[in-house]
Amino acid sequence: MAHQQGSKANADEISLRKLVRDFGAFADNGLFDQLGTLFAPEVRLDYSALGAPAVQLSREALIGNWASLLPGFDLTLHDIDISDLTLTADTARCEAALQADHFVGAHYWQLTGRYSFELRRTSVRWNIACWEITALTLSLDGELGSREVLAAATANVSRRRSAESAAR
């Protein structure tokens, strides 16, 4: 849902689009400290589409979980594009199309679907609103490859951490 050329961009809309794009980019580039800044102190995460229960967890626990998996991939790309945005005074809801590609060696897994982001305004800086994610829900449309790549990524993280410890 891009704004039309020649139309005035809404600062809230642009801030939210940037946050969603940063979410994917920070995850893909292992920038976990920056990724953490996008989330509220407590977050509702619903990945039930992948068989995991919906949970309420701290930002630190969420980022710790991702930091214990994502570095094990050789390459990831989370392509996320907002298709629908609803704003109120201090909250927002974004629906976004998702294609997430994950590689470890010859192993590959792609999932397609949607993310639903729930956000709240945290402050205003230079007349631009700052937002944080309070809830994230994944809806799955399809998969290619195998989820076995997750186990390979987890094993890579363990191996890499052992090698780093041994090098010290």
Summary tags:
168 residues, alpha+beta, Nuclear Transport Factor 2, Chain: A, six-stranded mixed β-sheet, 31% helix, 45% strand, globular
Q: What's the short version?
A:
The protein contains 4 helices and 6 strands.
Describe this structure in words.
The protein has 168 residues and is α+β, with helices and mostly antiparallel strands. The chain has one domain (11-167): Nuclear Transport Factor 2, Chain: A, CATH 3.10.450.50. Helix content is 31%, strand content 45%. The chain contains four helices and six strands. The chain has a six-stranded mixed sheet with strand order 2-1-6-5-4-3. It is globular, with a radius of gyration of 17 Å. The chain starts with 10 loop residues before the first helix and ends with a helix.
Low-confidence parts lasting 5 or more residues at pLDDT below 50? none
Number of helices: 4
Give the percentage of residues in beta strands: over 45%
User: What is the general shape?
Assistant: globular
**Gyration radius, to the nearest Å?**
17 Å
- The CATH architecture designation is Roll
| CATH fold call | Nuclear Transport Factor 2, Chain: A
The structure class reads alpha+beta
Q: What is the CATH class designation?
A: Alpha Beta
Pfam family, one: SnoaL_4
Domain SnoaL-like: 12-129
Protein name: Nuclear transport factor 2 family protein
Give the secondary structure arrangement, pairings included.
Blueprint: H1 11-28, H2 32-36, E1 39-46, E2 55-58, H3 59-67, E3 75-87, E4 91-104, E5 107-125, E6 128-145, H4 148-167
Parallel strand pairs: 1-6
Antiparallel strand pairs: 1-2, 3-4, 4-5, 5-6
